[in-house]
Amino acid sequence: MPYTKRRRLVRTAVAIALGATTLAACGSESADGEAQSGPASLTYWTWTPGMDKVVDLWNKGPGKKDQITVTVKKQASGDTLVTKILTAHKAGKAPDLVQAEYQALPTLVSNDALADISKNVGEAEDRFAEGVWQQTTLGTDAVYAVPQDIGPMMFYYREDLFKQYGLTVPTTWDEFAETARKLKKAAPGKDLTTFSANDSGLFAGLAQQAGAKWWTTSGDQWKVSIDDAATQKVAKFWGGLVEEGAIDNQPMYTPAWNKALNTGKQIAWISAVWAPGTLTTAAPDTKGKWAMAPLPQWSASENRTGSWGGSSTAVTTDSEHQAAAAKFATWLNTDSEALNALAKESGIYPAATNAQISGAFLKPPAYFSNQADFYRKAADIAETTAPSAWGPNVNVAYTTFKDAFGAAAKNKSDFGAALEEMQADTVADMKKQGFEVAP
Q1: Which superkingdom is the protein from (predicted)?
Q2: Closest CA to 337 of 394, 226, 345, 111
């Protein structure tokens, strides 16, 4: 089946459309049901630290029994790896397995770089929350990867300072805003938190929780709705808090931000399950003083969270051993021994629900030793992950977010205008690439 821009449009549009039920897996049909015999040597591109030690368990155990050997090739992460995978795929030389962030899957699928492994993953779906599994199926009956780690979002706060200033942990965003104002009135030199424009994933996760679906399809056309009502609500909320000075407007992950957390100048943080590791480095003097709670909701009747980060293990269409590769990907992300090793060697929070409350996650992170139920609460929150809707040019949307929202946050100007710019740039890039975009 010859590759054309039209084919890429239709293939991706069907793949992303939520509720779609079929997908023609051109380029991988011949390998879907392969009856492999004899040894298979697989190559796995991943950025996860310590992955070679985890893979050793496979090579010495199930892999040795099945005559399937996996070799880890350490890579850079993010857009750098996506570009490298696509370059290798154009030459027909992509590795058998790749680690892919969830938002990168549509780009890889639209370029026919990932195989549909639905016939080779068995009952793996039952091991993951629905909203997590959906990110690797793109809402179809196809399966393009097995979830590996996730980043459910939650609310972190200084328990001691909340008590000192008579603050209540907010359960809604309205309460969150009032808490910020109450703190500012009681302690003008402190801020509840900051709006940071240097990490697009945070804003995307907040929009996801609000119900945003940035990329969907209508027939054979893409529909880009980055400026939809849900995202406008999020932008207006945070822009309003920044404009009135109720929260800080400085970026995260800077020496100044670290100092603000460590000294109690900022007393809360909207983050994800991986936050304890960051806080350990950023605010070492406040160990044992923080607590975690669910993300505030837009209405008291809701109970859902967004995602900030996370990745999967995918099989490429270039692999000559797709069934074997899918077998390894399933083992890596569902087997108890493998998941314990991933937690120990790589420090990941597993996507598999059973692993979130066992092994390395029976005890809280050392930084949160004061909250014995940390991981039990995190697992409950992870189950409420809202569905996502990624598209083929997430990188463009993210870049514009950093520029437009960065300027708006710094100048305390209109976040709505920044959102419009994000929408316009994303649509313009898709049209430039040859995608048909609905008005």
Answers
A1: Bacteria
A2: 345
Which CATH number is associated with domain 153-307+387-433? 3.40.190.10
Each residue's pLDDT tens digit, 16-27: 433 332 333 333
CA-atom Rg of the chain in angstroms: 22
This prediction's pTM: 0.89
Checking if the pLDDT of 152 tops 90, the result is yes
Question: Rounded CA gap, 391 and 226, in Å?
Answer: 11
Q: Domain 40-150+310-355's class?
A: alpha beta
Reported as a single tens digit per residue, the pLDDT across 233-285 is 999 999 999 999 999 999 999 999 999 999 999 999 999 999 999 999 999 99
Give the residue extent of every domain in the chain.
40-150+310-355, 153-307+387-433
C-alpha span between 396 and 436 (Å, rounded): 17
User: Which token pair is 393?
Assistant: 């040019």
**Cα gap 117→345, rounded to integer Å:** 27
For the chain, the first-to-last Cα distance in angstroms comes to 30
